[in-house]
Design a protein that fits this description.
Number of helices: 17
Structural class: mainly alpha
Strand order of the largest sheet: 1-2-4-3
Strand content: under 5%
Number of strands: 4
Organism: Desulfoluna limicola
Protein name: Peptidase M48
Cofactor: Zn(2+)
Largest sheet: 4 strands, mixed
Shape: globular
Order of helices and strands: HHHHHHEHEEEHHHHHHHHHH
Pfam families: Peptidase_M48, Peptidase_M48_N
InterPro entries: CAXX_Prtase_1 (IPR027057), Peptidase_M48 (IPR001915), Peptidase_M48_N (IPR032456)
Length: 424
């Protein structure tokens, strides 16, 4: 093993251990419900929420440990050279060889994940009353995901490999441009073409709720023409709402479980929060961060592709573009892990700001609080997450912190986002 192999190995082990420690701390405090949230769960519901968290966590531990163990076996028993030699023997040329090899490794990873997805859906989610997915729907979702991945991912992958194969290290800028264009294109076509493959989207029917939503959108200057209800109940009892798309493809999507189980005030408060993300430019800023991050990644990748010690760390005797792409992603693991902390913190700050925007512009602070409580209750959420687990994993603040921030904003007379964000 060379020094790069040690970096990758230590990083993989450290990340796995960090997640296990965070999960263990999270489990330890799960039963201690904060005083302000005691009315949310009965004693039986509190135990059920802890049992649910325990079941999901234990399954995640088994899956992550097994995945890491099998990967290390594959690595140290020279699985990468074996796959490389096998695929090269087909005689497809460097670009197609890379595409086939990456797809093959992706299939191996997906095959390992499949039993856990089945167990999580049909055992854990079923046991706690969330699952509404049939086996036919589950399998069809997997088939559709594979086909969509092949249709979108294979051409992009082939293009990136071809650029680096023919233009060398200077190809990173062209790859950056192509991937950015792909990211923008996906945001346009996914709401219109991809998501309807998995769910049915029905325009929100005319009535008081739609009238109030359209009136609110007009007051904040939010151009809105598409409000859809998605049949989320087809798969789960959990509720949600989200914003997707750009320009004419922009749409607000409400789960039918949200519309059916929450009051119009609560639904509008949730939508005000989602619109707040757009008005406060969180979506745009997130896209800019992703664009910049992609550029840095491709630049660093261009330096690593022909770096022989990187390939030697995985027992490769030659440098290939596609293996360089795979190995660089592994070498980048510690950087990605550390970047996760500030990015998650930024996301949590955005949630506070969107909450503040919602209560300031809609006046529905109490409704937002009751909606958040309902969403957490119906999903058996952990009401006392450990700070380390939050820092490592959570893009949203804990419920109690959000409620306190919202209530502070209400008392301040909707004085603005700054007063609320400072409470994090």
């Amino acid at each position: 093993m060379n020094w790069i192999a040690w970096i990758v190995l230590i990083a993989l082990l450290a990340e796995t251990v960090a997640h296990i420690i965070a999960d263990a701390l999270n489990l330890k405090g799960a039963g201690a419900i904060p005083e302000e949230l005691r009315d949310l769960y009965s004693a039986d519901e509190g135990r059920k929420a802890t049992d649910y968290l325990t079941a999901r966590t234990h399954m995640d531990w088994i899956e992550s440990s097994l995945s890491l163990g099998l990967f290390l076996l594959f690595w140290f028993f020279k699985g990468f050279p074996f796959v490389d030699g096998f695929v090269k023997g087909i005689g497809l040329g460097p670009v197609l060889t890379g595409v086939v090899a990456i797809c093959f490794l992706g299939v191996l990873k997906s095959t390992l994940h499949l039993p856990f997805a089945l167990y999580g859906t049909f055992v854990i989610e079923e046991r706690f009353g969330f699952n509404r997915t049939t086996l036919a729907t589950f399998l069809m979702d997997r088939v559709k995901s594979i086909l969509v991945g092949l249709a979108l991912g294979v051409p992009l992958m082939a293009g990136v490999l071809a650029f680096f194969e023919h233009f060398g290290s200077s190809a990173w800028m062209a790859c950056w441009g192509v991937v950015v264009a792909f990211m923008l294109g996906v945001n346009i076509i996914v709401p219109t073409w991809i998501m309807p493959l998995f769910n049915t989207f029905t325009p929100l029917e005319e009535g008081p709720l739609k009238t109030r939503i359209m009136a609110y959108a007009k007051t904040i200057g939010f151009p809105l023409s598409n409000i859809f209800v998605m049949d989320g109940s087809k798969r789960s009892t959990k509720a949600n709402a989200f914003f997707s798309g750009f320009g004419k493809s922009r749409r607000i999507v409400l789960f039918d479980t949200l519309v059916n189980n929450q009051s119009p005030d609560e639904v509008l408060a949730v939508l005000a929060h989602e619109m707040g993300h757009f008005k406060l430019r969180h979506i745009r800023n997130g896209l800019l961060i992703a664009v910049a991050h992609t550029g840095v990644l491709f630049f660093l990748l261009s330096l690593a592709l022909s770096f022989e010690p990187l390939h030697a760390a995985f027992f490769m005797r030659s440098t290939e573009v596609y293996t360089g792409l795979i190995f660089f992603s592994l070498l980048y693991t510690p950087v990605e892990f550390l970047l996760g902390f500030p990015l998650q913190a930024w996301s949590r700050a955005n949630e506070y700001q969107a909450d503040a925007y919602a209560i300031r512009t809609s006046g529905l602070g109490d409704a937002l609080v009751s909606s958040l409580k309902s969403l957490h209750k119906t999903s058996l959420a952990n009401l006392n997450p450990h700070p380390f687990h939050v820092a490592l994993n959570n893009s949203h603040p804990p419920l109690l912190q959000r409620i306190r921030a919202i209530q502070k904003g209400i008392k301040a007379g909707f004085a603005g986002e700054e007063n609320v964000v400072s409470s994090e």
